[in-house]
Amino acid sequence: MVVSEPNIKNLSKSFLTYSIPTRSEKKKEESIPQELLKLLKVKVGELKDTIEMKEERIEKMISVLEKITWVTNPDAEEMQLIEGIVEDTKTYLNQEMKFVSTVKPLVLKGFAKKEFRSFLGSVDDLREALQDVQSVFYTLPNNKDFYESLKDLEDL
Amino acid sequence: MELFCTIDFYLAYHKLKKKNSYKDLESEILNHFFDKSVLDLCEGTLLNSRSEVNPYIKKRIKGKGGYRIYYYLYISNDKLYLLFVHPKSGSLGASNIDDTFKAENIKKLPVAIRNKEIYQLEKDKSGKKITFIKQE
């Protein structure tokens, strides 16, 4: 034979050094994914908490937006304050849309799916409340038919 | 306070009631509109903030994914008119209605009252169901 025959005893011994890691190697290899999973769980929990906190904030904003519609016949100063609230809501919605884009890839991987879906509903409700405020103070007051119908009802 | 509704509301309500996912609409209406004070009913979005006495209101029921109900509170006559309802989610869900439709709903009401194209809503004996009675 041209090639010398391998010594199975030596090979077996060296194989064991690979197939059976030392205690410290084994500990390290096992702990890394476990720590990673632990960290992931903590961070996903934090993400869920953040989403819930945002939803609570949005609910409060919607409540304020509904309440301002009860300001009847607002004067110039009141209109300026309403305008400020409208602009702040628009800015806030833009920020939340950025948050949605950032979180979406994680949701597609299956993280915080339920919370994210609920959050999208809240964002939609805030957008709806903003539209309503704009209707009440900017567009419906210019709708002649609308106020004529209301006058008609008062006279019934 | 007596409760009435327009044909638009009546049709929208019965269309939704046929769907299993909207089966809670009846109990929501019972909870939110029957045996309530004017103060309780004056909640939500006031759509006619530049108007006189009687409010035209949009009420958000069950928050996100719930229902939106439009009504006119005829305080001086102690009557409430339900004008329209839509869910926010599900197969018949809509995000919002536009201004034209908001105006259209109220425009139809004086005509409907004059022509008696109105239903009165009452609780049945069990108190858990709504009966619609066409006005003569």
Describe the structure.
The complex is a heterodimer of chains A (156) and B (136). With 156 residues, chain A is an all-alpha fold. Chain A has one domain: Methane Monooxygenase Hydroxylase, Chain G, domain 1 (Up-down Bundle). Chain A has helices at residues 8-19, 23-68, 76-108, 113-139, 144-154. In chain A, α2 runs parallel beside α4 (113-139) and α3 (76-108) runs antiparallel to α4 (113-139). Chain A is rod-shaped. Chain B has one domain (2-134). Chain B has 4 helices and 7 strands, in the order βαααββββαββ. Chain B has helices at 7-17, 25-33, 38-41, 99-114; strands at 2-6, 45-46, 56-61, 67-74, 79-87, 118-123, 130-134. A 7-stranded mixed beta sheet of chain B has the order 2-3-4-5-1-6-7. Chain B is globular. The mean pLDDT of chain B is 92. The A-B interface holds A 59, 62, 65-66, 69-74, 118, 121-122, 124-125, 127-129, 131-133, 135-137, 139-141, 143, 145-147, 149-154, 156 and B 42-54, 56, 58, 60, 63-65, 72, 74, 88-89, 95-96, 99, 102-103, 106-107, 109-110, 113-114.
Work out the count of structural domains of chain A. Answer: 1
For this entry, what is the oligomeric state of its chains?
heterodimer
N- to C-terminal distance of chain A: 116 Å
Number of distinct beta strands of chain B: 7
What count of helical segments of chain B does DSSP give?
A: 4
The helix content of chain B is 25-40%
Low-pLDDT ranges of chain A: none
**Helix and strand pattern of chain B:** EHHHEEEEHEE
The rounded distance between the terminal residues' Cα atoms of chain B is: 19 Å
**Segments of chain B where pLDDT lies below 50 for 5+ residues?**
none
